[in-house]
Amino acid sequence: MNQEQRHDWSIDEIEGLFQLPFLELLFQAQQLHRARFPRNAVQRAQLLSIKTGHCSEDCAYCPQSARYDTGLPPEKLMAVDDVVAAARAAKASGASRYCLGAAWRSPKDSDVDAVCAMIRGVKDLGMEACVTLGMLTDTQAAKLKDAGLDYYNHNIDTSPEYYPEIITTRTFQDRLDTLSAVRKAEINVCCGGIVGMGETRVDRVRMLQVLCQLEPHPESVPINSLVKVQGTPLSLRQIDDKDGQSSDAVDGIELVRTIAVARIVLPHTVVRLSAGRESMSDELQALCFVAGANSMFWGDKLLTTKNNGVSRDEALFHKLGLVPWHPEQEAASASTSTAAAAAAPRA
Ligand code: SF4
User: Fold this and answer.
1) What is the residue-averaged pLDDT of the chain?
2) Largest alpha-carbon pair distance within the chain?
3) Per the omega criterion (within 30 degrees of 0), is the bond before 218 cis?
4) What pTM did the predictor assign?
């Protein structure tokens, strides 16, 4: 079992993993998972849209783009107190990670100041904090770090080759530049993609290859299954992949394979089973956890789309014998021990 971070995975090697017999692939992924992460434990994250709609970008899957008529009412940036109150309620309902999303191409500096106050409020609750605000400058990333931000989310979405079919208002390189600013500020990188947008398996392979090429690997990789929202180009377009196959959603087994391959090529990364769970059976979600997913969104809403409610997910945890995973507590106790070791008298 190779647990080291490799940045030189070839397309053929990653494709070879996808082609393994399904049970072999899951076995390899689960072995690596157990070597690194607590067994049967899944982190619960809650996501809040702190500024909704009217986005200038044209991401073809997104109901928040001002270019598409999705009937979504826009909302201004939320007040800090309201965000902290929502985080407190999320913690009370069982979430330990709180993610804030704003529909911006890039934030203004004054927006970043407001988000920093929100981050401080979330951190004071003892939760892990993640935000996604669009493209960032180095200075903005440094401010977020100072506020205590744990993770910045900025997805590459798909392969560099398929990307222009999905977004034209910013380039793949723009995405990588923001990820560099995040890394430079020493914030953990949360970066993944979406399956089921009409891409081929080769695109999924290339997406994972690009993630592996980041040094170090992203600490967090969300794998989303497309949620088709009425009015977005991907809901209006018949989704045919480049091999001429058409489908309403990515095949469940292919989704599980994608998660398992992510677990193998990114062995230290938290792999998050993100959007799209509402339409997944318990059995499919269970396979995603066997494949190495160890985080999920909690609560009845993602940014603007539906998620499984808490009671359905509590039942799923019970049925599968899962327990909540609290990496934020592990991080806090690691930093306490480091501080204690530094303060200990030396002979
Ligand atoms: S995904 Fe983000 S950047 Fe793209 S349109 Fe939606 S809110 Fe804007």
Assistant:
1) 91
2) 72
3) no
4) 0.91
Which of 314, 260, 331 lies closest to 42, judged by CA? 314
Contacts of 40 (CB under 8 A, 6+ apart): 320, 321, 322, 323
CA of 193 to the centre of ligand 1 (A): 13
The pLDDT value given to residue 346: 47
- Assess if residue 6 is contained within a domain: no
Domain membership of residue 138 as a residue range? 11-337
Give the residue among 79, 191, 85, 178 at the shortest CA–CA distance from 138: 178
Q: How many domains does the chain have?
A: 1
Residues having CB closer than 6 A to ligand 1 are: 55, 57, 59, 62, 64-65, 103, 134
Q: What are the residues whose beta carbons fall under 8 Å from the beta carbon of 170, sequence distance 6 or more? A: 57, 105, 135
From 52, 64, 104, 133, give the residue whose CB has the most ligand 1 atoms within 8 Å, as the site to mutate.
64
Indicate which residue's Cα is closest to atom 4 of ligand 1: 59
Q: Which two tokens stand for residue 343?
A: 């303060």
Is 191 an annotated catalytic residue?
A: no
Average pLDDT over residues 282-288: 97
Nearest to 328 by CA among 295, 289, 282: 295
pLDDT level of residue 244 (50, 70, 90 thresholds): very low
Specify if 347 maps to a domain: no
* CATH number, domain with residue 109: 3.20.20.70
The CA distance from 249 to 252, in Å, is: 8
The DSSP bridge partners found for residue 222 are 272
Q: Could you tell me which residues are beta bridge partners of residue 295?
A: 43, 272
Side chain identity at residue 74, one-letter code: P
- How far apart CA 52 and CA 49 sit, in angstroms, is 6
